[in-house]
Design goal:
The complex is a heterodimer of chains A (370) and B (261).
Chain A lengths: L3 E4 H11 L4 E4 L6 H13 L3 E4 L3 H13 L4 E5 L1 H17 L3 E7 L15 H5 L10 E3 L4 H18 L2 E7 H5 L1 E4 L26 E2 L6 H21 L3 E4 L6 E4 L2 H16 L4 E6 L1 E3 L3 H10 L2 E6 L5 H9 L5 E5 L8 H13 L8 H12 L1
Parallel strand pairs in A: 2-3, 2-4, 4-5, 5-7, 6-7, 11-12, 11-14, 14-15
Antiparallel strand pairs in A: 1-8, 6-13, 10-12
Helix pairs in contact in A: 1-2, 1-6, 3-4, 9-12, 10-11
Chain B lengths: L32 H15 L5 E5 L7 H4 L3 E4 L5 H11 L4 E7 H7 L1 H9 L5 E6 L2 E2 L5 E2 L18 H4 L5 H6 L4 E8 L3 H19 L4 E7 L3 H4 L3 H15 L3 E5 L1 H4 L4
Helix pairs in contact in B: 1-8, 4-5
The chains are: A alpha/beta (370), B alpha/beta (261).
The complex binds thiamine diphosphate and iron/sulfur cluster.
GO molecular function (chain A): 3-methyl-2-oxobutanoate dehydrogenase (ferredoxin) activity
Keywords (chain A): Oxidoreductase
Pfam families (chain A): PFOR_II, POR_N
């Protein structure tokens, strides 16, 4: 299939349709709404279910109900809407039903704004909903990668009976780029042995997230954790750029990773040997790759569109073995590649600082900006 | 429980419906949740729906309803059962989807979900247990608590100036175009129990024929949290609840009126 110009949000929607999503439930919120609109037209065309719910609370619980039938199902939203979905996401994690949720992040907290942001990293990657569970979180940096990760998300969700969240942002959702969609896949015809779809000719089934007996809940949570261990073993994804001879490395995901790549190319032209590691699976996080990277380079710069949320995970992964600095913009501001190049230059120029927290040094630097 | 064999002279006149699991419930003695369960199960048996049923249990005393019915079930977050039911029904339109919800669940935290399910004409059936309080959490004030009624969170009696007025859910939902069949019945005596069963049967017929949203509100007792014996509670329901929550048919779509049971 040839490449066509596509908008990020619409590409995700069509990719989900091609991946065999059988039901979509959502609620309008910028910068995600094109996804819902696309679904409102295409799902009925394909004879599949679409409901514009009365709220994200309702949308996620429609997803929960449909997921209990073992069919492929998804929703999408943006930051404030995803906050409302977290109760349902926790229930689905506790019930061990698969679902795909797309979060096209925007500036916050509160109503914030509709500009691109990565400030929900902690909320999504480190759980979000209540209870002991781990969602799989995938972060695309382009329209093509949004498509590819959407298809992957459905497979992973089913393979591990897990929630998969595609953590995108307003810039990737809104941008238009040439990209290629997968061919239309046939809808599933067989359903898992746990699916609640009417006890025709079999014993009844039920799905719930209740374990009134604490030791039984512990057993269930350990089952989730063991599954998570397998996910950590098999599903870590990241991409490396210009790292072979690198003396310095940037770690950045999604849009920030993309800006960082432009900065790496500029800095290379200036003669600074810098590369980029871009985590694609934010959960499971590429801990070993980042630890190994820390042993190879003289310093790491973490770039994010927030005040340093993934930064803490990079610090944990590098275990203090390498100096780490941070550069970020927040509130819906996207950093320019020049700003990142300057941060690389400062890192390369030294002196290397190992005391204090990189976020504090960045705050000090930012205070000069204002 | 072992059922003794019948000899040729004897006829079984009362048995556990097939759609009810052979297990004890956790409901308090005298609680009408058990009566409502039995009515649903009898209707499922009579209509031969067991293999097509999908129930959605809610959060409240009936949270374990999925253990008591012998058909497929899921269990929803507090108030969200009509949304879960919507998700199920939209992917499996030929199944009969039922929510079973209390008054805190349906008329307080889940009011938006039930109103919109009704407005969409979602082809599901809600069984709504109105016992004027939050049973499971120990008898707090619910949206259905009567003016002046004492609960653990309205210790001096519900003061409508401060706590607002009770919600008459059946009346409210009946105003929505998508609602096809909305009625209120009571579980306080055999005659009314029979009428309640007939209403549940009609609601399932409505759903089976694809006629849209149906809700049966059932006035129920909560002797434990009302601090009464079951007999006193039945009397209180009759004397206090029925005058406020009038029994009757609030919405019967003309196409439903043809259904003869
Ligand atoms: C989000 C959320 N809030 C509160 C609760 C606590 N809770 C459990 S049951 C219940 C009340 C249920 O009362 P009702 O719906 O009237 O049913 P009943 O127990 O009377 O049958 C509440 C508030 C909860 N489980 N989840
Ligand atoms: S607390 Fe009330 S509603 Fe709950 S089981 Fe007991 S009597 Fe029934």
């Amino acid at each position: 299939m040839a490449k066509e110009m596509m908008k990020g949000n619409e590409a995700v929607a069509e990719a989900a349709i091609r991946a065999g999503v059988q039901a979509y439930f959502g609620y309008p919120i910028t910068p995600q709404t094109e996804l819902l609109e696309w679904m409102s037209r295409r799902m009925p065309e394909e004879g599949r279910a679409f409901v514009q719910a009365e709220s994200e609370l309702a949308a996620i619980n429609m997803v929960y109900g449909a997921a209990c039938t073992g069919r492929r199902v998804m929703s999408s939203s943006s930051s404030p809407g995803v906050s409302l979905m977290l109760e349902g996401i926790s229930y689905m994690a506790g019930t061990e039903v698969p679902a795909v949720i797309v979060d096209v992040m925007r500036g916050g907290p509160g109503l914030g704004n509709i500009q691109p942001s990565q400030s929900d990293y902690n909320q999504i990657v480190h759980g979000g909903g209540h209870g002991d569970y781990h969602p799989i979180v995938l972060a695309p940096c382009s329209v093509q990668e949004s498509i590819d990760l959407t298809v992957l998300a459905f497979d992973l969700a089913e393979k591990y009976r897990s929630i998969v969240i595609i953590l995108s942002d307003g810039s990737i959702g809104q941008m238009m780029e040439p990209a290629e969609l997968p061919p239309m896949m046939p809808l599933k015809t067989s359903f898992p042995e746990w699916a609640v779809d009417g006890a025709a000719g079999r014993e009844r089934r039920f799905l719930s997230s209740i374990y009134m007996d604490a030791p039984a809940e512990e057993v269930a949570n350990m089952r989730l954790l063991n599954r998570w261990a397998k996910i950590r073993e098999n599903e870590i994804r990241y991409k490396e750029y210009y790292l072979d001879d690198a003396e310095y490395a940037i770690v950045g995901f999604g849009s920030a990773g993309r800006v960082a790549l432009s900065a790496v190319r500029q800095a290379r032209e200036m003669g600074i040997k810098v590369g980029l590691l871009r985590p694609i699976s934010l959960n499971p996080f590429p801990v070993d790759a980042i630890e190994a990277l820390g042993k190879r380079v003289k310093g790491i710069l973490v770039v994010e569109m927030n005040t340093g949320q993934m930064l803490d995970d990079v610090l944990l992964a590098t275990r203090g073995k390498v100096p780490v600095e941070f550069y970020g913009r927040t509130g819906g501001v996207i950093p320019f590649p020049d700003e990142v190049v300057s941060a690389v230059q400062r890192l390369a120029a030294g002196p290397i600082v190992t005391t204090g927290h990189p976020r504090d040094r960045w705050m000090k630097f930012m205070s000069f900006l204002n | 429980m072992t059922v003794p064999e019948l000899d040729s002279e004897q006829v079984a006149v009362y048995q556990r419906p097939d759609a009810l699991s052979d297990t004890n419930t956790h409901y308090c003695p005298g609680c009408t949740h058990g009566v409502a369960h039995r009515l649903i199960a009898e209707v499922v048996d009579e209509m031969g729906l067991r293999e097509r049923m999908i129930g959605v249990a809610s959060v409240g005393c009936s949270v374990f309803a999925y253990n008591y019915f012998d058909f497929d079930f899921v269990q929803s977050p507090h108030g969200r059962a009509p949304a879960m039911a919507t998700g199920i029904k939209r992917v499996l339109p030929d199944r009969i989807v039922l929510t079973y919800q209390g008054d805190g669940d349906l008329a307080s935290i889940g009011m938006a979900e039930v109103v919109h399910a009704a407005a969409r004409g979602e082809n599901i059936t809600c069984i709504f247990i109105n016992n004027t309080n939050y049973g499971m959490t120990g008898g707090q004030m619910a949206p259905t608590t009567l003016p002046g009624q004492k609960t653990t969170s309205s210790p001096n009696g519900r003061d409508v100036e401060v706590n607002g007025y009770p919600i008459r859910t059946a009346e409210l939902l009946s105003k929505l175009d998508g609602a096809s069949y909305v009625v209120r019945r009571s579980l306080h005596d055999p005659k009314n129990i029979r009428l309640a069963k007939k209403a549940i049967r009609t609601a399932f017929e409505v759903q089976k024929r694809g006629l849209g949203f149906s809700m049966v509100e059932l006035l129920s007792i909560c002797p434990t949290n009302w601090g009464m014996t079951p007999r006193q509670a039945i009397q209180w329901l009759e004397e206090k609840m029925i005058p406020f929550y009038a029994l009757g048919d609030y919405k019967v779509n003309p196409s439903v009126a043809d259904i003869k049971i």
